[in-house]
Amino acid sequence: MTQKQTLTMITQRSIEEGIAMEKGKNSREYFNACSVIEMNELDMLRMGIEENTPVRVRSECGEVIVKAIYGIQTLSPGICHIRQGVWANQIVPGRTQSTGVPQYSGFPVCIFPAPNEKVRSARELIFQAVGMGGFTDAKNS
Predict the structure, then answer these.
(1) N or C: which end of the chain has fewer CB within 10 A?
(2) pLDDT in single tens digits along all 141 residues of the chain
């Protein structure tokens, strides 16, 4: 059954992200490493999400389309993970609890299957965030 699900998001650095960042944030390697959400296989099954398909991730402050994959690391049901970077930054709340650092982990997100949506490139997301949403990046289309 396809349905939205509320999960707890964590974002953190990863080896895959670090290696890809050496190639550049506009590289195909960075796109492949960071434009994904790792999810528990049971959560994906319950939500009717197939691996390697797009999903919409919505938090209190924004949303982003990313590709759903089974967790490379062990993820308990109810927990999901997007590697830190442009895609995660679209949904990280600005709250800092007076630390000066945004709340990168432990915030609720709603996940919706989005099989017909496009995962945008880092460049497209940045241009959209600054009000230049008409920009497209043919390399990642």
Answers:
(1) N
(2) 455 679 999 998 887 887 887 888 889 999 999 999 999 999 999 999 999 999 999 999 999 999 999 998 889 999 999 998 899 999 998 877 777 777 778 899 999 999 999 999 999 998 888 877 665 555 444
Query: Model pTM?
Result: 0.86
- Residue 77 token pair: 């049901």
Name every residue whose Cβ is closer than 8 Å to that of residue 37 and which is 6 or more positions away in sequence. 55, 57, 66, 67, 68, 69, 80, 81, 82, 111
Find the domain containing 44 and state its range.
Answer: 5-140
